[in-house]
């Protein structure tokens, strides 16, 4: 059985354990599946992230353990590659929203999202890719090369006939708006202004990694992050492609959109391009700061399975989320961020699943506490339901809405005057698609607190 990802980290998993129940087919991939100990923690009720589709449906096949049981049955078959095409298994994997909750909350740390990527790659090798998968996977490229498509997206959102046509051609939900690209994507300034050049030369440097979605859809977030980091006493460099690389004008991307469609070779090329651009900064002692949890986690976690060697591990170790960086610097007494109290009511905070998966909500709390007299609370919820493109796919939009309605949307409706912070692009889109226009990124909130000084 050919593997598309590097599963060698599981080479010794379960070896010598008579109860490991490692499937006959699949090699190290099968061992990654078999780390599940069938504790059924993924089917427990309570304040956990993992298995949003199980939490909504109650269908045991849609829990991490349920998917493991179906995968084991397929990998124990003499014709494992054909067995992986079983419709019941295909449905269970399709309804995994890759929240990464299992990687943190499961006692065995089953990485079902990465297993799903391998599953999708196996399917693509057998059946090819759908038009929708190609469209979604290549998002970073068409956003860069075909800016005229932003007009088409706006028309589609405003004309029901075009929405229905997109449902028929691409399988997009006609009832859900698509995110609309900004009129102008983020562009790094040629030189960030310096108020005191001699002092600025002595400031510690950080490198801002502007992901595809921030760059093309919400460039104001990157601009806010730069303002906040500079106000905190840092010189900010913006990560750019290698000057001599294959595509020196196309912005950097982590490859997340490709991984989500099982396009592993394309994801590997994107990650390698990103690592080559970031490695010199890391070697120079700079920290990489990212704004989007799924992109940072993609680099720190998923990219490690792409077979790119030690360089990707090195870059991953020096890459932090915006809130993680600020929290670290605050704890070390290196952050000098002049914030003042915000006018108005409390702040509600919704954590992206991948923020929760890396424990970054503790960092969010620490940073939010830097704002004087700031009343905030974290919404106790699982996945918002958008999960990349899941919430706009015709066959999944209903389930995605049910996920949002479990806790997130009721909490927002109960607090109509509150500010809303959601660092995940998908989360903000889900809220807006359900009629709530309030969500902002933490960087925007902090810049507002800075603005109170003027």
TrEMBL record:
<dbReference type="Pfam" id="PF13183">
    <property type="entry name" value="Fer4_8"/>
</dbReference>
<dbReference type="InterPro" id="IPR004017">
    <property type="entry name" value="Cys_rich_dom"/>
</dbReference>
<dbReference type="Pfam" id="PF02754">
    <property type="entry name" value="CCG"/>
</dbReference>
<keyword id="KW-0479">Metal-binding</keyword>
<keyword id="KW-0677">Repeat</keyword>
<feature type="domain" description="4Fe-4S ferredoxin-type">
    <location>
        <begin position="34"/>
        <end position="110"/>
    </location>
</feature>
<feature type="domain" description="Cysteine-rich">
    <location>
        <begin position="350"/>
        <end position="431"/>
    </location>
</feature>
<keyword id="KW-0004">4Fe-4S</keyword>
<keyword id="KW-0408">Iron</keyword>
<keyword id="KW-0411">Iron-sulfur</keyword>
<dbReference type="InterPro" id="IPR017896">
    <property type="entry name" value="4Fe4S_Fe-S-bd"/>
</dbReference>
<protein>
    <submittedName>
        <fullName>(Fe-S)-binding protein</fullName>
    </submittedName>
</protein>
């Amino acid at each position: 059985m050919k593997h598309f990802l590097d599963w060698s980290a599981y080479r010794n998993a379960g070896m010598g354990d008579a109860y490991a129940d490692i499937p006959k087919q699949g090699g190290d991939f099968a061992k990654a599946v078999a780390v599940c100990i069938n504790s059924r923690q993924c089917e427990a009720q309570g304040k956990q992230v993992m298995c949003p589709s199980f939490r909504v449906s109650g269908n045991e096949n849609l829990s991490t353990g349920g998917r493991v049981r179906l995968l084991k049955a397929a990998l124990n078959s003499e014709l494992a590659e054909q067995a992986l095409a079983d419709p019941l298994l295909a449905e269970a994997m399709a309804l995994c929203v890759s929240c990464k909750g299992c990687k943190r909350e499961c006692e065995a740390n089953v990485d079902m999202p990465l297993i799903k990527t391998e599953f999708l790659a196996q399917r693509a090798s057998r059946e090819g890719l759908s038009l929708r998968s190609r469209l979604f996977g290549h998002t970073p490229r068409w956003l860069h090369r075909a800016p005229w498509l932003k007009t088409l997206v706006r028309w589609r959102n405003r004309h029901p006939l075009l929405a229905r046509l997109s449902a028929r051609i691409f399988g997009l939900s006609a009832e859900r708006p698509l995110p609309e690209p900004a009129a102008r994507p983020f562009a790094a300034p040629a030189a960030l202004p310096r108020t005191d050049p001699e002092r600025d030369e002595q400031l510690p440097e950080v490198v801002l990694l502007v992901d595809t979605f921030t760059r093309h859809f919400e460039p104001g977030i990157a601009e806010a992050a730069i303002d906040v980091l500079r106000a905190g006493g840092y010189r900010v460099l913006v990560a750019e492609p290698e000057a001599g690389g294959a595509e020196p004008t196309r912005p950097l991307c982590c490859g997340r959109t490709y991984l989500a469609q099982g396009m592993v070779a394309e994801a590997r090329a994107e990650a390698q391009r990103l690592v080559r651009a970031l490695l010199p900064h890391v070697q120079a002692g700079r920290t990489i700061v990212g704004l989007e949890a799924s992109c940072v986690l993609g680099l720190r976690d998923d990219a490690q399975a792409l077979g790119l060697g030690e360089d990707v591990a090195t870059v991953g170790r020096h890459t932090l989320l915006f809130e993680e960086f600020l929290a670290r610097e605050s704890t070390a007494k290196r952050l000098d961020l002049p914030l003042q109290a915000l006018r108005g009511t409390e702040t509600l905070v919704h954590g992206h699943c991948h923020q929760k998966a890396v424990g970054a909500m503790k960092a969010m709390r620490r940073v939010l506490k830097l704002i004087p007299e700031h009343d905030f609370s974290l919404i106790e919820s699982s996945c918002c339901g958008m999960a990349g493109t899941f919430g706009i796919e015709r066959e999944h939009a209903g389930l995605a809405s049910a996920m949002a309605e479990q806790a997130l949307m009721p909490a927002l409706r109960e607090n109509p005057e509150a500010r809303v912070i959601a660092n995940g692009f998908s989360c903000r889109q889900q809220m807006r698609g359900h009629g709530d226009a309030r969500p902002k990124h933490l960087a925007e909130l902090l810049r507002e607190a800075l603005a109170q000084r003027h």
